[in-house]
Amino acid sequence: MYKSKIAGIGHYVPANVVTNNELAVLMDTSDEWIQERTGIQERRYGTKHEESTTSMAANAARIAIDRAGTTKDQIDFIVFATLSPDYFFPGCGVLLQRELGITNTEIGALDVRNQCSGFIYALSIADQFIKTGMYKNILVVGAEMHSMGLDYTTRGRNVTVIFGDGAGAVVLQRSENESGILTTKLHADGTHAEELAFINPGSHGGYHKNRDLYGYPDDKYGGIFLTETMVKEGYIFPNMNGQFVFKMAIQKFPEVIKEALADQGYTSEDIDLFIPHQANLRISQFVQKLLGLPDHKVYNNIQKYGNTTAASIPIALSEAWESGKVKEGDLICLAAFGSGFTWASAFIKW
Predict the structure, then answer these.
(1) Which residues of 182-200 are buried (b: 16+ CB within 10 A; e: fewer)?
(2) In this structure, what is the dihedral angle of CA atoms 31, 32, 33, 38, given to the nearest 10 degrees?
């Protein structure tokens, strides 16, 4: 069985910087309030009508492909993770294929909808394909265009101030030595799915348990996808029970990391660099303390990008690699927790 390695990595963030003070003009919030609760100072927003989840992914992918020493025509599979696709369907995988000009119809494209842990799920899927010998060069992408679907009023501030746009990508190839992905651990529990969710519009139609609240007509067949009440009352935006999500995150983050450590016979002291999903700086700091990791072994960039969901880990990994914080032989730990709930970890020998 083969082992897979990250042969090339790249990221892209939009040029538009949006500070906390700029958001404070639109809603009842402040730079101090946002930083105290999340650690975020600014984020990036894509240019409306010019950039999309797919276009940002393509920018990151081109860099990753070039750094892998390969070409777009040698990519034989695409795995695309996002919660903010260009369209409801088709998925971004085929749109990325088109954007990159990959006209080889022999390849496949797979979309992963696991939100914050989406990139690790996508990486794990690609890892299995490489290990079995089915594919040789897999493009794995995490990209998000959150700014197009947020509530820029005081009503939505708890969610809106957190998110930003961006994309990260890696090219996974066969490894000829001991380097590469050592293990991935994936978990899910849908019990509390609605505590962090983007529920409307959705295919639940008029038969949703809250149909009266959403203004659905009592028709027998089908339903109205989007109603005036849903728009007026702000039910078309993401919702989050922040305190509940925080409590779950600080529980599951350490669990899935310790599971991987035990599987590989390591301890937290063996970790050279920990890159958590950039959900909230306070969560990352709590997990860091629990694992006993010094500051130089943890990489956070949520301060300048916010939460870019499926893109956060590849963006941070790419930045860390570019800055020399990721070196050959290093043990890299990636971990994420998010909507679903889903959580995951990956250990990589660079």
Answers:
(1) bebbbbeeeeeeebbbbbb
(2) 80
In the 8-state DSSP scheme, what is residue 46?
P
Q: Which CATH architecture has domain 3-178?
A: 3-Layer(aba) Sandwich (3.40)
Q: Are 268 and 261 in contact (CB under 8 A)?
A: yes
At 137-170, the pLDDT tens digits run 999 999 999 999 999 999 999 999 999 999 999 9
pTM: 0.95
The rounded Cα 1 to chain-centroid distance in angstroms is 29
Tokens 């066969």, residue located: 174
Per-residue DSSP letter, 310: G
pLDDT at residue 117, rounded to an integer:
98
Domain boundaries, the chain: 3-178, 181-193+239-349, 199-232
Q: Which two tokens stand for residue 55?
A: 């276009």
- pLDDT tens for 190-219 read 999 999 998 888 777 644 555 566 666 655
Q: Which residues contact 179 (CB under 8 A, 6 or more apart)?
A: 3, 5, 328, 329, 349, 350
Going 16 to 19 to 20 to 24, the CA torsion angle's sign is negative
> Looking at domain 181-193+239-349, which of 2.60.40.10, 3.90.226.10, 3.40.47.10, 3.40.50.2020 is its CATH number?
3.40.47.10
Catalytic residues: 116, 277, 307
